[in-house]
Amino acid sequence: MSLNIFLFTKALAQPANIPVAEKPEDPKREFRGVWIATVENIDWPSTQHLTTEQQKAELISQLDAHEQTGINAIMFQVRPAADAFYAKSREPWSKWLNGKQGRAPSPLYDPLEFAITEAHKRGMELHAWFNPYRATNDGNFAALSPEHITRIKPEWFFTYGGIKLFNPGIPEVRDYIVRVILDVVDNYDIDGVHMDDYFYPYQIDGQHINDAAAFKTYGGDYADIRDWRRHNVDTLIKMLSDSIHKHKPRVKFGISPFGIWANLYQNPEGSDTRGGSSYYELFADSRKWVKEGWVDYINPQLYWPIDNNSAAFNKLLDWWSDNTYNRHLYIGMAAYRINEHRKGKFKDPGQMPAEIRYLRNNPRVQGSVYFSSKSLLNNPLGFTDSLTNNYYNSPALPPPMLWLDSIPPNAPRNFLSAAAKNGVELKWETPLLARDKEPVYGYVIYRFDGDEKVDLTDPRYILHIQYNDATFFTDTTAEKGKTYLYVVTAIDRLKNESEPSPTIAATLK
Q1: Which residues does the chain have with pLDDT short of 50?
Q2: How far is CA 63 from CA 71, 86, 97, in A?
């Protein structure tokens, strides 16, 4: 996900003055994601030798910490190399779960199901992160499970850089990958399908993609194999978009491509950068996927500092924001680079906060995603504290996707309060079904001091966001003798919000 940045940009600019903009008001709607990488045990589980209970405890600890920080979305890697971190799979269990590919957890549990449940408890979305084309992550092919697809269909793969990769030019490969992903869409309560930047392989000097035979068989009228490769990736993205939304219309589909689509010197529509590009090197036409409406969000990895010589964060963000085509734009943020050993701008504790301010000042950017979980947990240069206490100090709802669902729920009914031993007890009744007949997915509870104006646009007054249909909540933080005003709204799966309930007052005696 992150390690290829230095393949494409070799020079880091020396520290420069970071633009100091006023911190924008905390948005009520913002996507605040973090990648939890399972490949090579980057984030979770920390080793391949944990018990089931240790794995669960470790994941809960990470989710608790991210909830405290203000994160509201988890990108959970479920298929790092044609293997699985979930039970309902046609592929073998991942070796990074229990040390051997094909070995189930013991006692048996379903890590994806567990992660979804725990994320939703904490008011966080869970996006299942797939690596579409990587079939192995090393050259130890002898250790692969007999059920691994490279053993069953060896003709589907080429070897590049010492690892096996699916050949995207073979139609059966594309069909297979769609079926793998639909296994998860159909069987799990995920909020989104997420794919990373590994399409055709990052280029390695002296290496050659061995797909001439497939080109001869399937190339059709394409004169240039490079155009055919881009067509192959486009075809998979379109197939996935259609299939995901047909099976579950309210599951989001997003991709996190390499940060540069094309450089201006290569393409008049490219960005003012001088680095590798997804279009020319990876044969991934990421801009087209947004333009055609095949993805619900694009999450480019902008892993460079502001005003970097080769690829400036600010220039790339501006370029992507001009190419969103009314889809969501979330910025991939390089938390793993903060305080890196080499001299550079990321040694400045103000660099990433400046990037947050910059993206928040652009109305066509709806949020960000950090690589990766452990980097945030390590609180480099106090950055995570800064999120907790400053930038993510108020809760935020994910932004709605009106092209998927524009009909909000109806308002909760019969909203009441009562004093309880441990606080103010709030109760209401489920709203009447909305026009689209979609059941309520959750609720948002707002609290104001008794003399404050009720303003539901200000996230500072959000007391609680819940992703379940329970029709009660106890405010255990209410102070005795103080009068509060409460309001509750309903949200649907895509976080469209209802009109508010009537405002009620309550005083804890």
Answers
A1: 2-21
A2: 9, 18, 18
